[in-house]
């Protein structure tokens, strides 16, 4: 079998197309969740915690300096605020995926039970 025919057979399989659609929708869903966390959840949470902007939370390990040539050397920071935002992001996506899998599994069980009767 030629390489082109083998690739064509692989690419047009139903599972491959379903996976591609899932990846595209997942990417778009990730952007929506990121916006939800950054623009809707974190600002009020930061306000409740004393007007904290989570994007600005960082621990500076080494301050910015200017070297002998006059070029600025950037500060070395641990951006734990961004990490907190990414953890919230992940938890929302993980919860959504869990709920989707739970619904699919319950539908599959109902379908199997109906087929067994």
């Amino acid at each position: 079998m030629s390489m082109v025919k083998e690739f064509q057979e692989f690419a047009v399989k139903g599972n491959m197309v379903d996976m591609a659609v899932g990846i595209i929708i997942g990417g778009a869903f990730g952007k929506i969740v990121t916006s939800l966390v950054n623009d809707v959840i974190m600002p009020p949470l930061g306000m409740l915690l004393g007007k904290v902007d989570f994007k600005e939370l960082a621990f500076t390990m080494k301050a910015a300096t200017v070297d002998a040539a006059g070029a600025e050397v950037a500060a070395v920071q641990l951006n734990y605020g961004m990490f907190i935002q990414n953890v919230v992001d992940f938890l929302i996506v993980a919860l959504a995926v869990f709920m989707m899998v739970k619904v699919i599994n319950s539908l599959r069980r109902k379908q199997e039970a109906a087929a067994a009767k």
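The beta strands are 59-62, 65-66, 72-73, 76-78. Helices lie at 3-11, 14-48, 80-116.
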